[in-house]
Structure formats: C-alpha cells, structure tokens
Amino acid sequence: MLLHENAFSQSAPESTAKDTSNKQLIRTAADLKSGTSQDVLTSFFKLAYSDLKDGHHLQFNSSLFAVHAKTDSTLWRDTNYKKQVFARNFTFGIDYGLDSTYKFKSVSLNIKYAIVNQRDKSIFDFSYGKEIIPLMDKIGGLIGTATNIYYQKYPDKRNDKEEVKKIDNFLTYSIKANDSKTSLAELPKGFIIIIDSLANTKMYLPVTAKNYPGFRDSITNLYNIASSLLAKTVLWTAGTQVTANQQKLFNKVDFNTEFLKGLTNNRSTMGAEIDAKANFDIYDTTAVNQTFKRKVLSASLGINWIIYKDKKSQKSYIEFKPAFTYNKVLGGEPGVDKQGKFTGDGILRFRVTDALWIPIDIKYDPDKGKFFGFLNITSNFDWLGGSKSKASASN
C-alpha cells in the first residue's frame, strides 16, 4: 500500500508523485475485486484461455480507460480519473474460437457498459476522504524529508542494510496478514531526532515519530473497512456480442445483462455475491437442409461463495459459484421442443497470483445425467507501463 512516491525521494515533481500514488491505489482497488467481478467487467486488461464443451477459446478484454491510460499517464491524476466515467465503464473484447482439432471455428466481438458501477472507486477517494488525504500528504512529506536529511548527515548508514530495512519497515504500512512493523524503540536515535525537529516547524504537525505508528495503523484500518464495503456494492452491466464463422459474417448475436451484489461481512475471511444474468441469443441453425434463425432466452441465478479471502487485505483467493440456469427456445426452428429447461452449473476459482486465476467450469447435462469439468486460465493485468513503486509500498 502506497503513501507517496516522495516518501524516500523529493527529486520527483509533486504531481508525478501523486500520479504514481493514485495509480497504485487504483491498481490495488482492482486487485480487491472478486474473480467473478473481474469477469463481469474488466478493470484493465484480461487474457483468458477456455476449454469448453464447444471447443477452445482465446479471449482478450480491455476497458477504454486502460487503452487511454496506456498512452496518457495524466489520466491517473485524481481530477482526470474522475472525469473518465464512460471510459472506465466501457469494455470491449474479442473471442477467437477453435474446434477440437484447434482449427478456426468462430470469432466474436463484444462490447459492454456498466449501467451501475459502485465498485469503480479508487481507494484514494473511497476510503480516506478529504480529512485523511491531507494527513497522508504530511506523512509523505515528513518522512521523505527526514530520510533524505538522515542519509545526508550519516552517509555511511546507507550501507547498513539492517538499519535501512528497519527504517523502511517503520515508514511503510502493510495490508498483509501477520506483518510485524518496526517499533519506535528500534529506530536510530538520530533519525527520531530529525523527525521530531521537522515536526516542530509546524509544517508537518500533527505527525511526529512518536505518533506516526498510530497514524500508520489507523490508515491501514480505514483501508480494510473500505475494502470490505467495496465488496458489498452493486455492479450492473449490459452488453452485446456478435459472432462470425466460416459460413456467415453475422452467425450469432447475443444481448446480455448481468447484476452483481456483494453480501460480505466486514473483515470476514469469507463472503458471498448474488450473480444474476440474462441472455437473448439469435443465431443460425440448420434443420432438414434449411437454415433458420433460432431465438433462445436464458436466465441464471447464482451465489458466488468466496470460500477464502485474506482477512487483512480482503483479497479473494478461493471462490465457488453454483448457479441454476433456465433456457427457453422462443422460436425459429420447426419441431423443436419449446418447453423451458433448467440446468445447473458452477465455477470453482483459485487465485494463484494477484493477476492469475484458474477457473474450473463444472457443467451438468440433464439429458445425459453427467457432470463435465473444463479447466480455464484467466489473467487480469494492468499492462500500463512502469512497475509498482517499491519506495514505500508493501502489498
């Protein structure tokens, strides 16, 4: 979690430091989303390989904001970021389908827009608010200046790796479980004297070395509360997908909408989300040497059970979403049973890294009375250039 880039270096312009800080906070907000939430609406970029019943699929999705931010770094500034409402809520993607022999089968283009997106809030705005941000600015300025003065006064201390590690661990605050922070008593006395002398200039009050640990822990606490609240918010999208195959340019058109609402308890190691979606498909089907436009309506209701998430970071690591789906053929093909049919399915997800998920699709075929499992790989990444800051980050 980042305080400010200038915590260890005041050579960078203030605006650049804040842009970097905002970027880290927004990236962290994206990491907090469940795997299901990232599937509903991609934050930045997403690559996926799916091995499904109808063949293999290679998928790429992105948000309009991610594309813009790749070429314009000023969009990370909090004032500019807030203005990018349409870009943050608009996603697009491509699905390249292969048959069982890995030959071309189809290609699909999709667009989606979030009608309601309460999960698209940078932690910068969502958790701290106007009262906390100035305090963070003071903390960043104070510890940055103190660190520079200390190493200028005692240049040989830069080579003392153990001491540098203690100072770094005191200045940063972490959202990781079981992280032990450097106590005030463990710090070099010369460093404490410098921080207290700077605080006495009134520029940085009320932050001093003695009360900094309390501020650090309080901000971490606010972060955890905000993370939990973020998981309970609503996400509602609507979109369309057009599919072409070797026979026809517009072989299938899909209209879809999805609603996601969290039910997570504050600071819990588990959680749940209601996931409801509906699809209306129009596609070509062949019967008795004739081609018909088949129309199918489907709706599903599921509960995404977040089996395990880190209590401090609130990141989800294991999820299972069972769902019931209702399918009904509305018309287009003579002789087809138009009675509605219920089916069951589920997705079991494992988070390997912040970006990498392993979802397993579990399908039930009522006609054959069998379950089928399909292994997939999904990577949600930012691909936005520049590494995450290590100066005062621990995440």
Shape: elongated
- Do you know the CATH architecture of the largest domain? Beta Barrel
C-alpha termini separation? 5 Å
The CATH homologous superfamily of the largest domain? monomeric porin ompg
- The number of helical runs is 9
Q: What is the radius of gyration computed over CA atoms, rounded to a whole number of angstroms?
A: 25 Å
CATH class of the largest domain: Mainly Beta
Helix fraction, binned, reads 25-40%
pLDDT averaged residue by residue: 76
Q: Strand sequence of the main sheet, in spatial order? A: 1-2-3-4-5-6-7-8-9-10-11-12
DSSP summary, beta strand count: 12
Main beta sheet: strand number and arrangement? 12 strands, antiparallel, barrel
SSE string, helix = H, strand = E?
HHEEHHHEEHHHHEEEEEEEE
Number of domains: 2
Explain what you see.
- The protein has 9 helices and 12 strands.
- With 395 residues, it is an alpha+beta fold.
- The protein folds into 2 domains: 235 residues, Beta Barrel (Porin), CATH 2.40.160; 101 residues, no CATH class.
- Helix 6 crosses helix 8 and helix 6 packs antiparallel against helix 9.
- The protein is elongated.
- The N and C termini lie close together (5 Å).
- The relative contact order is 0.16.
- The N terminus and C terminus are likely disordered.
